[in-house]
Prior knowledge:
By secondary structure, the protein is an all-alpha fold. It has helices at 2-25, 44-56, 83-88, 90-105, 117-128, 150-170.
Amino acid sequence: MAISIVTIRLWVLALALTYVSVLYSYLGKADEAVPQTGGEGYDPVQIVSNALLCFNDKYIYSSCEESYRLSQSGNLNVPPQNTDEYCTGPCLTETNLVLKCIDNIFANFEFYNKATIEDVGDTIKEACGNGPERGNFDVSQHIQAEESNGHKAINQILYGLAFMIVGHGLLP
């Protein structure tokens, strides 16, 4: 009789830990289906069209050479030899203003090349920094694929299973 109570407790513990492990792997993903907007309504066409207006706003992009401007495709066509001109001139400031404009309208905006606002921002920081990536404005190298987070869920489940096995050994 005592063995069956311990077995039932162990199964309850195992189910609880599995549930917590799976639940933990989905934390922070509850709002992915709802567009994160900066005060706009929930009409998707209007949200996207307002975000795209940031690229053509003459008050934002006024001094940066047109060939260096961030495009809707998510590309920055800045040759490595023009890095200093881009990073110390108006282009850097104006590109950051465009990114902020887009972020204020639609925080989860995705460019045509699947880059996010954060991906483009990271590319600019690296390309204008003093590290080995200076002058490399290739946004595609900074795109963070969603699949890269898949290992986190598996790790949580494996940790939960390991914890259950260790817990089983510790229980009388």
